[in-house]
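Box 3.1. Reading complex inputs
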Amino acid sequence: MLDKKEALSLYQKLVLVRLAEETIREEYFKDEMKTPVHLGIGAEAISVGVCHCLPSGTKTFGTYRNHALYLAVTGDTDGFFAELYGRLSGPGKGKAGSMHLCAPEHGLMATSAVVGTTIPLAVGAALANAYRKTSDVVTVFFGDGAVEEGAFWESLNFASLKRLPVLFVCEDNGLAIHAHARERRGFRSIPDAVRAFECHLGAGDGSDIVDVVQSTRAMLGQMSQEPKPGFLHFTYFRFLEHVGPREDFDAGYREKPSPQELERLDPVRRLERELLRRGVAPSALETIRAEASAKVRRGAEEAQKAPFAPPAELTTDVWT
Amino acid sequence: MLDKKEALSLYQKLVLVRLAEETIREEYFKDEMKTPVHLGIGAEAISVGVCHCLPSGTKTFGTYRNHALYLAVTGDTDGFFAELYGRLSGPGKGKAGSMHLCAPEHGLMATSAVVGTTIPLAVGAALANAYRKTSDVVTVFFGDGAVEEGAFWESLNFASLKRLPVLFVCEDNGLAIHAHARERRGFRSIPDAVRAFECHLGAGDGSDIVDVVQSTRAMLGQMSQEPKPGFLHFTYFRFLEHVGPREDFDAGYREKPSPQELERLDPVRRLERELLRRGVAPSALETIRAEASAKVRRGAEEAQKAPFAPPAELTTDVWT
Amino acid sequence: MDVKSLMTFREALNLALVREMEEDPSVFVFGLDVADHKRIFGSTQNLVEKFGTERCFGTPLSEDAMTGVALGAAISGLRPVHVHIRADFLLLAMNQIGNMMSNLRYMSGGKLTIPLVLRAVIGRGWGQSAQHSKSLHGIFAHFPGLKVVVPTTPQDAYGLLRASIRDDNPVIFLEHRWLYDISGEVDENEAAALGQAAVRREGDAVTLVCTSWMNVEALKAAEILSRRGVEVEIVDVRTVTPLDEETIVSSVNRTRHCVVADYDWIFCGFGAELAAVIGQGCFGRLKRPVERLGFAPAPCPTTRPLENLFYPSAPTIIRAVEKLLGLAETDLRGESFYSYEQRFKGPF
Amino acid sequence: MDVKSLMTFREALNLALVREMEEDPSVFVFGLDVADHKRIFGSTQNLVEKFGTERCFGTPLSEDAMTGVALGAAISGLRPVHVHIRADFLLLAMNQIGNMMSNLRYMSGGKLTIPLVLRAVIGRGWGQSAQHSKSLHGIFAHFPGLKVVVPTTPQDAYGLLRASIRDDNPVIFLEHRWLYDISGEVDENEAAALGQAAVRREGDAVTLVCTSWMNVEALKAAEILSRRGVEVEIVDVRTVTPLDEETIVSSVNRTRHCVVADYDWIFCGFGAELAAVIGQGCFGRLKRPVERLGFAPAPCPTTRPLENLFYPSAPTIIRAVEKLLGLAETDLRGESFYSYEQRFKGPF
Ligand SMILES: Cc1ncc(C[n+]2csc(CCOP(=O)(O)OP(=O)(O)O)c2C)c(N)n1
Ligand SMILES: Cc1ncc(C[n+]2csc(CCOP(=O)(O)OP(=O)(O)O)c2C)c(N)n1
Ligand SMILES: [Mg+2]
Ligand SMILES: [Mg+2]
């Protein structure tokens, strides 16, 4: 079990991500945030939990659904909003937008809007670690849809063959846009399909950050004992539409879960209940939320006052 | 067990392929056959055995190591040599050469020199069969190296998902050019890696045509009982260098097996022994060989007298 | 029977699919998102309802293999229409496109025919950015054996898509996202042929040779230039391969000035081919060198101010024409130009 | 210390790799076949022996992911040289090349650098056919963010490969198979810079702008033409991106005639870019339109007689020059032209 202090610190990180995304949901309709947003409401525990277990500076890679990852790694709400508002002060000078957030100085090397494309990059980064004789674990997050891309299998094979220190984290919401797993998978289950490869295999409930942290720690332990890649499979529930700030239970392709079910699937509420159960005072949680909220609000406000990149930036950074 | 008549007919086909390739080995140094040749000596039983079990006209696909396949499907030594000598009378008018032999009128739709590329085509052809509500089985042959390409996994997944009537035949010689399986595979075994997919799985000794035929029949039976793709894994020994007419045991990357071992690995010798054991007269085999030899010799000779394509053919067949 | 009606580009695409599927049971439509409730921005709507899930279905995320599947179905006698929501994703399928689809007929000595359409949407706006904004028509056209179509009007969306589906060669059909909302009259009986450019507007001062969305920008530019007496001629290329050199060259030989406004990067793009063809076909007639417009030499940035600069537009065209003709710059301050936020914003 | 020596193109490539690996421990070489006994036609020989299997190793057949692996290693501070035995196989990696490698620096606001070389061999001869003969330099050059190098001489194989490895940008380095056997003097101390064309031969009658193997054909053509008093100038492009427009344009402005002999298909190829650049930069100076030579508009056929016609060659260049200058055709019957069978045949 995690001790209370650690659980509180996780709560702090979770809440920061949640409030940042809730702010996007509110602000988005003002049409100033001109970037597609793939919100991770429901998925926060995976990035936050896994990154919590990684030494700081660890190299990570992700997808377009990267807000939780970016904030888990950097805590930098100011840069985050600056990038979403397309400002020069964003980590990508506004050129990246939501789908390409990265922060190499914090280890977050790249995220990408083409499904599956950062998986081999993570393997390459792990190869670089092995080349330098370090066993630092590189971590890559990807959706369940990415498993259907050939690049996934090629990457898994190479990493397993070379026993590279790379942790594959599959964030499985059972959906690729609006397509259900059953419409896309010709195999029994993702863990089953991966089982024959020379890698450690683990799984957990991605809606439960305590489980995420424990599974990740166990996996990192196995990886350090027997150097092989790790594969962690986490299921979670996507609360919102694929891209954009709305719910879409009325679209017809899936049912809205019951309120109790939604409570269970919400990683923030779930950790909240756990903390209360363990005797944390509601006011302590309230304080955490208030602090996070202030930070988020400041980030969003400052971003909107910040300047855009000057025209010369259009053709800067193409080549060195 | 196969009856004697069937075994003899298999012997006839095997010998035709073997002699055709032995002829290439002799003729190649005259430098008139200006095409790379990926000889299948040692592998003949797989194409011959599998195709023997397929209704004639069945759609098949293959690789650049396609001589046995082409001859098993068409029996057409004349066209075969015409194509290898680059003549207009070849099935590809000499434009195709050894690596792209095809005979759509016999069901052999395409072979290709880029590893893995015909696998999805076969799945597409199976989709076409399903679309037309026929359950005809499309068959695709590929090397063990192809399993490392993403296209293989994508194809297997889609075929399994849609339960398409496609038979994947993996011709596993444990080599990709000079690279051994252990240098390329991060998974326990090919059958293990495929096991989680919704397809029937079978395996056999690719040096033994009796085993090939039996495994194939069993597989086709399963596929017709429960409509799903089939995956057949056959091991075999590549007698020659990757491309070209020579042996290359002196190259250092593999050992030469013992003479006894080579006897066991040679599908033609193996069937020969079996037939003799079953009381077939040596002269009967000799007659088969002599007929095949005459056919092959005629093909090779006629081809060299045949005309090349006229210049206008250079830009014919690009578009309809 | 009256078969002319006003419809959007998206509706015209949809109508073409419906008509072809009605007339030929071997036509089917597949690809990611074709059968969900959004239906590729509406262009595949009603296909599932009308023709069933066997003739319109989604796939796993496997662009490489799915393209091979399309090819395998095509050589087996079906007529697949394989759809991609962004042209960028075709890069995942380049091996099948450039090593297989373009060769297979040739390698089979003409025995195989490949009646296949790859539809792909060219994304733009609201931060589509570097991975959701490519067009790449020149890249595809480089491979002999492929045809490449870049429709602009609803009539062409309809007519050229039907012609592409009926064509026995692989056709890559690239649809600009912004054109989806454009309305125009569509005559259902008007047949279209691949390989014919269209003169969208006649003029004597300069020829603007345009692809896809650039035609819309060019029309706007023409309207403004016309007010000061400069009449430009606009040639819509329509099909990159086969290319209608004659229409292009004869227009430039008349106007003796040419701006190529291609919807792609300039360097080694289709715009270079156009400039080369015109340089050859109009040699000695051109009064000034051909001026090439296209994307800025950078990946497409997300932030709107830079994105605005990334794309060539009506103002860029106007400035290029003025430069070619040695005219003073028109005051554009009062003009209103296309802004996609009037059509769509946020997620799409 | 004398550092000039005669060596083949293959040896020059090998020497460049050895020197860079000696000087920089972050340089490593990987790809199919780099570590087997054939060693990519000898170009990676001794690397395993000198630097160990960690710095020179083979891979599974997974071009897409291996390219991503190279990219991941490069942004992590290593300098991978990723090798492909045929350029055609790069089509399997186009997604990583065109959607990732070319963008990642830009998308990171300049924080990532990508010191990465993709070496690929351009196959030809003995039935290499449609899937083992592509060059595609113009395709790669179309994407901003990539550099593209096409060396011809052993000196360039050496100097440009070293410069490419030292470059902090992704470089695609394309080596024609036939050049491997060409010998020339290599000065180990001569540094080369990307972005500079070379005048291989001076002349006043016509400028031949050539890539890769076409330089060899052009030199042969020049020799024959010279005997009848026609002195052609040969400009070896060397790097497609960055392109040295100045050297090309100033040569053509002098000779006032130009044949572009590109080693690729003509339509939408790099030859089109060259023709467009020259059409612009030499406007009014050109006495005749730029003549473009390249592959025939077809997949590459296997059979030798058609293969001979598929490729442009010294005779094609001679005929193009004669046409440009209005000269009668030289009698070529007594001439001997390059025939690869003198170098290699059969499997290779
Ligand atoms: C290669 C590729 N194909 C298609 C798309 C379009 N697309 C964007 S997100 C998505 C679904 C991805 O699903 P998953 O990997 O499960 O991630 P999730 O969105 O569920 O987090 C698709 C198909 C894409 N971006 N890249
Ligand atoms: C995509 C691709 N990558 C690399 C090559 C070069 N190559 C030709 S054959 C081959 C080995 C293939 O091995 P396998 O699939 O086992 O077939 P085998 O030759 O053993 O029959 C390789 C790497 C190729 N032709 N295509
Ligand atoms: Mg998902
Ligand atoms: Mg093999």
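In summary: The mean pLDDT of chain B is 97.
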